[in-house]
Amino acid sequence: MRSFLIDTDTASDDAVAIMMALAAPDVWVLALTTVAGNVGLEQATSNALLTAEICGSDVPVFAGAGRPLIRALQDAHWFHGYDGLGDHGYPAPKRRHEREHAIDAIVRLAHAEPGLTLVTLGPLTNIALALARDPEIAAKIGRCVVMGGAPCEGNVTPAAEFNIWVDPEAARAVFRSRLKIEMVGWHVSRGASVLSDEEIAAIEALGTAKAHFAIQSNSRAREAYHTQTGEIGLSLADPTAMAVALDRTVGLSWSRHRIAIETQSELTRGMTVVDRLNVSADANNAEVWDAAAGEHEAAHIVWTIDSGRFKTMLKAALAA
∠ CA 274-141-18 to the nearest 5 degrees? Predict the structure, then answer.
């Protein structure tokens, strides 16, 4: 049984990713830790509890950081709705979150379950704070699958993906750490990974509570994606990252590079600057790059995924 720890700013696509993890027969989800991002912390925590409830799970939920490290929170209500779930008036969850703070829970679980897989679905504020509290947890965590980054193009600015852009200082700290990062950028949820109208109808036809919730809660996101890109269908960024976390071979094309996060420029705030040509290995460039990127392990970046397998995994999870 594999142990997962999921950090989430729970909105509509986060909810679907959480449902995929909770449905996996070989995965034990140790906890959901929540962070402000898509929505405020209180709403993200409520949404995580509701998602677990729909799945019939009593996975513990821990509330974490209510704002980025040094910036004001700018949420994504325009994409996910004010409640993060498409504004359908879902009832409040029946149970409350745990009293322990998410930062304490992350540190405790990293030590208690060495080798666990950490999946981050939102801004990296909680993870940066946990690393600052106890840097040793980086060596305890087996995999850190990050849904975030835009090595190709951004979705909140031309340069940046939302999760990194919201709290670039936290992302910088995490990418400079010794965590074994696997970056699943926004780009892999586009193209062939987008659910067509026919595929959406097929999921709705499953007739399960999970399938209904997955599609209904993403109704606003579906509209916003069309407005944003001109493309028709449902793009599910967090579930693509969860598919990679559940089965790394879903990623078809990988490469390993050092990554720097831009924090100073408002034009390129949150940009994931990938050293794809390995200029840091060139003595002529190394001094400049080291100053920008810091000393850290290179991250594994997935460039393409098996979209067919992703959709099969998604449908199976929602049918269960």
Answer: 85
**All domains of the chain, ordered by start, with CATH?**
2-319 (3.90.245.10)
Please return the burial class of 303, using the count of CB atoms within 10 Å of its CB with bins 0-12, 13-18 and 19+: middle
Residue by residue, pLDDT tens for the chain (320 residues) are 999 999 999 999 999 999 999 999 999 999 999 999 999 999 999 999 999 999 999 999 999 999 999 999 999 999 999 999 999 999 999 999 999 999 999 999 999 999 999 999 999 999 999 999 999 999 999 999 999 998 778 888 888 999 999 999 999 999 999 999 999 999 999 999 999 999 999 999 999 999 999 999 999 999 999 999 999 999 999 999 999 999 999 999 999 999 999 999 989 999 999 988 888 777 777 777 777 776 677 899 999 999 999 999 999 999 98
Asked if 194 and 62 touch (Cβ cutoff 8 Å), the reply is no
What's the gap between Cα 203 and its chain centre?
22
Q: What is the pTM of this model?
A: 0.97
Q: How many other CB atoms are found less than 10 A from the CB of residue 171? A: 32
Burial pattern 146-161, b for ≥16 Cβ within 10 A else e, equals bbbbbbeebbbbebbb
**Tokens linked to 20:** 């995929």
Instruction: Give the span between the Cα atoms of 242 and 32, in whole angstroms.
Output: 14
Strands 272-274 and 259-261: antiparallel
Kindly state the tokens that stand for 40.
């405020």
